[in-house]
Amino acid sequence: MKLSGVLTRKVRGFRVIDLAAMLVLLALALTVYAFKTSAGRERTDITDIETQIHDESRQVRLLQAQVVRLESPDRLERLASQSGQAPVSARQEVAPDALATVAAAPALTPASHP
Amino acid sequence: MTVADVFAGPLSPIGRWLYKRLWWVEHGYERARASESAEGDTRLRIFFVLGLFGAGFVALGLGATKAALFSPYGHGVELTAPAANARADLTDRNGQVLALDVPRFGLYVDPREMAFPDRVRAALLQAVPTIAPEKLARFLAGDRREYVIGDLTPETQAAIHALALPGVSFEEETGRDYPLQRFAAHVIGFSSRDGFGISGAEKAFDNQIRAAGGRTPVALSIDLRVQGALEGELARADAEFQPDDSVGLVVNVRTGEILAMASLPTFDPNTVTGFDRNTMTNHAAATVYEPGSVMKVFTVAMGLDAGVATPDKIFDVATPLVVGSQTIHDLEHGPGTLTLREVFTHSSNIGAARLGLMAGPDVMNRYFRAFGLFDAAPSELLESARPLTPQKLTDNAVASMSFGHAIAVSPLALATGMSAILNGGVYRPLTLRRLDPGQAPATGHRVIQETTSLTMLSLMRQNVLEGTGTQADEIGLRVGGKTGTATKLVHGHYVVGKNAANLASFAAIFPTDGPIGADRYLVLIMLDAPKANAADKGVTTAAFTAAPTAGRVIDRIAPFVGVRRVITASDLAPKPAPTAATSGANEQ
Asked: What phi and psi values does residue A34 have, to the nearest 5 degrees?
């Protein structure tokens, strides 16, 4: 069929090309509507999530500050000394290559510990 | 008038061309009819317009697709701008948070929405006792919305919200929190409510902190673990000797990074009101002290580097040295002569003064200026204080400065100069900025030779093994150091005596062995006017106060800075009892 035939052919008084254009237009309108509706829902979800992120971020900041407070070196030192903890004495340290010597030495009684 | 009329006259070539074009357009329809193509042209125009619309739809579709697929939403990019007063987090060198922005709330009242303002007033004052009652009463008597108080925590905000008070509302704001409270307060500093740094690192790095806009943390050179050990031991010395104030510094002398800086008494940056000036002052940077015999490190380094003396040169210390109007004594006489090594380990004022006089004012001026003792310490901290120095280097001034009198410098300046002596001889400003791994330190400039630096490390080690610094020796850590017990000026006179006020200081360096370019750590402890107690037998010299404090700090921080112990049999042998000379008696 020639191009001019496609353009001039009529069905019940309507040209086929007009009907086709109408259908395309309708499809486009429906598609745009569907996408916009979907985008609107997405936008609402995004706003909700952003609000949640904002709230969570606030909580995270507050918790971070709380963690730093709890891990403050002076607080830990106070707690450690209250429970009788102290660093290991340097006299109790031994280098790995001296372990054999220590193992061969007679066992120390508790009273003989430095 | 027609187009033909306009162009009726003589025309230029351009005019003729335009005339033809216009006429061609004007007669376009007649030409189409003549050639029987009018219908085809109309269709062509319809298709053309259709094509244009189609292209427009396609463009819109592509734009919509791009917006949908490449939108910043959901891709981790925050769309909300940071608050105007937002500041970046301050962290230590390992990423531990020192200061951070946290959500806070501002409280507003609007009396127009209240039926019973008195009830609201009573409820608010009970919930937030820090609200000024008069101010609140004034606002409630007004006729507009007013800002009552800010910096409310979310808990307080929720508690007030639960009261369901009419006319009371909140607005979110950003507040600065210092969760470590009094810990490391001076070095961290604090900022104002509107987000500007006021003191400490908050002021020193204000531009960087504000430019980061609350997103990228700013890392300091401070190591929180080292800071903890320093402050812990300084607090212990504070409780034991009750000095007026005390200072501690830990510095990597190779890089110039300050790992810890402490000043007591301290304050809480979260609530800066109510602290006196002495408490708010960072004595490590903003106060100058006459350092006393710690200064002999500079004098001896100068003498050795300038070729004035060798470590074995003999000095006559048998009789007091008279210089101008002053007579310089050593309280503990001992032998009549001392080598320069012994002058250092016995902390002989006479010996140090003789060395200073041998060098002379010109040499002393050159070296002490190079050590940075005549200027404020170059530092990011704006509170770095200028020293007090003699107007003219007379013999009297030279002799006095040789053992740390007649000059007052900040502990920061002292540590900067001493780092140059102990790092191989390069003077570089100390910094609170963390160097990245592998990053070269500031270039600096050479002030003494490497050999002099090595000799000074050896002398300081010897002083800890058998001199005034024995109380600072820690097993296997090869500690060196120099004590200083500076008598203090009272009404213009130095007061000498067992219970006289003094400044007890100890400058320690560890490890003293290894290559000259290795990492080495300076620990400076200063106790201003320590009080005698039974534990130290009533002696307040640095040998019994500052030196053991420095030793304990070193013992605790060695694992954090990666210094391994090298324990030998001699380390485990009992230490000899201190003599009068090694107790720092000469320093008074």
From this structure: -60, -45
Which chain B residues touch A if contact means CB-CB below 8 Å?
43, 57, 64, 68, 73-74, 79-80, 96-98, 100-103, 154, 177, 179-183, 224-225, 227-229, 231-232, 235, 474-476, 555-556, 565, 567, 572
* A78 in B contact zone (CB under 8 Å): no
Handedness of CA B238, B243, B249, B250 (dihedral sign): negative
Please report, in angstroms and rounded to a whole number, the separation of the first and last CA atoms in chain A.
Answer: 110
DSSP string, B515-531: -TTS--EEEEEEEESPP
Label the pairing between strands B502-510 and B480-487: antiparallel
Q: What are phi and psi of B73, to 5 degrees?
A: -60, 135
Query: Looking at chain A from residue 44 to 73, which residues have their Cβ under 8 Å from any Cβ of chain B?
Result: 46, 49-50, 54, 58, 61-62, 64-66, 68-69, 71-73
Distance of alpha carbon B165 from alpha carbon B163, whole angstroms: 6
pLDDT tens string, chain B, 588 residues long: the values are: 555 566 556 778 888 888 888 888 888 777 777 776 656 667 777 888 889 999 998 999 888 878 766 766 555 445 456 677 789 999 999 999 999 999 889 999 999 999 899 999 999 999 999 899 999 999 999 999 999 998 898 889 999 999 999 999 999 888 899 999 999 999 999 999 888 999 999 999 999 999 877 678 999 999 999 999 999 999 999 999 999 999 999 999 999 999 999 999 999 999 888 888 999 999 999 999 999 999 999 999 999 999 999 999 999 988 889 988 888 888 766 678 899 999 999 999 999 999 999 999 999 999 999 999 999 999 999 999 999 999 999 999 999 999 999 899 999 999 999 999 999 999 999 999 999 988 889 899 999 999 999 999 999 999 999 888 998 998 889 999 999 988 877 776 766 666 677 899 999 999 999 999 899 999 999 999 998 876 666 778 888 899 999 999 999 999 999 998 887 766 766 666 666 556 666 665
Do residues B149 and B139 make contact, with C-beta atoms less than 8 angstroms apart?
no
Q: Give the Cα separation of B513 and B564 in Å (integer).
A: 12
Catalytic residue flag (residue B293): yes
CB pairs under 8 A between A and B: 74
The two three-digit tokens of residue B390, written as one number: 């003699």
Interface contact flag, B232 A77, Cβ < 8 Å: yes
Q: Which residue of B has its CA nearest to A68?
A: B179
The pTM of the full predicted model, rounded to 2 decimals, is 0.79
- Residue B171, token pair as written in the block: 């607005």
Closest Cα in chain A, distance from residue B496 (Å): 37
